[in-house]
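Project standup — Tuesday

K.O.: blocked on the structure for the chain from last sprint. Re-posting the sequence here as requested.
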Amino acid sequence: MQPTVSWRVFRRFVGAFAVGVALAATSGCTVPVDAVAGISVTGDGHLLGVMMVCGHQIDGATLYVDSTDVDREVTVGSWAADRPLTAGLATWTLDPPSAGWTATRSLKPLTAKTTYTLCGWTKDNSWSSSSVSFTLTDRDRLTPGTVRYDDVSGNGNESTIAVPVAEFKARACENS
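H.V.: unblocked you, prediction finished:
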């Protein structure tokens, strides 16, 4: 009995299938990261958003209550920059927003024992920032001129640190 499919056709099919699997494995569904989000405080205790854009652009930022259940994530504030943020450092007060920023969702009151996450985004989902998570206790430990952010080392280890603004500006984009 003869096979109905030739080996040549079979090999081509297997090769095409392998290429498809490789492409699917290497193309993620996430937005590429090209900025680093952080938080700080003003001298009078207002929460500051801090964004170090590494090379492309960021259009705004969102603060939300983090949850392992996506349906339970709640946005507590969102801001759009009047002009896209390009490479460099940007800061803005979250309540009320600074000049050059518009609150697309005004900041809701923050509560104790809740973990919040701040991240940056673009309108067309072409770029994003890394995120930083914090509680009110973490915020209260900050002093003006320091930035809390998630630092990623060259080997991929991640840790949340607080450093002077100048150090954040110098180091934040090293591994982005």
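K.O.: great, moving the ticket to review. The radius of gyration is 21 Å. The CA atoms of residues 148 and 162 lie 4 Å apart.
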